[in-house]
Structures are given as structure tokens and as C-alpha cells.
Amino acid sequence: MKCPSCRIKAINFITWAQGLSAFKTNCSNCNTALKANALVYVILLFTLIATFSFFPYVEGVVGYLGLSDINSKLKVFVLIPVILLGAALAWFFGGYKISKKQSYSK
Ligand SMILES: [Zn+2]
Questions:
Q1: Distance 83 CA to ligand 1 centre (A)
Q2: What's the average model confidence in pLDDT over 18-44?
Q3: Transmembrane region positions (predicted)?
Q4: 96 - beta bridge partners?
Q5: How far is the CA of 56 from the centre of ligand 1 (A)?
Q6: pLDDT attached to residue 104
């Protein structure tokens, strides 16, 4: 996602996808304090809804893939593509806005 201050990519996808940097970070170029815009929250909310609505089908997908014998915790991994798709949508369509609370630590 681009930094609204310097117009350069503020963060790489790997760092972004690892957690809280998706919502609050400092630009890696100009160190402006940034927070996620509303679109990111909207997309992530829809991703959560999609993930939960997909839960009843997990057993079916696991059965279809012939993985019925695997540990039930591992079955949740079939949901990862849904989550990744949501993250990718948030990455491409979402963005940052400048946080009012500036960080001066370099
Ligand atoms: Zn910047």
C-alpha cells in the first residue's frame, strides 16, 4: 500500500500481512505515521464473514480432497485461501491515511 505522504510503497506485503502493520505503521521511506483507511476494515470484515460462512463446508472440502483422516485442527487450513484472498483484496484496494498522531522516532 502506498504512503499518502511520499507516494512510495510504505511497506512490503510480507511485513504487512504479518499482523498489526496492516492497520498502523510508519512509512518505510518518510517515516510518516500511517493508519489503514476505512476500505481495509470493510474488506477485512467481509473476509471474516466469508471465512465464517465457509466453516460448514470445511468438512465437505476436506472430504473432496481426500483428507478426511487429517487432524481436525489442520482442516482449518482449507480456509487459508479465503483469508489470503481477502488480504490480497485489502492490499490492492485498501490504503493508508496519515495518522494524526505523528511518530518522530527514526
Ligand atoms: Zn512515505
A1: 27
A2: 92
A3: 38-58, 78-96
A4: 36
A5: 43
A6: 57
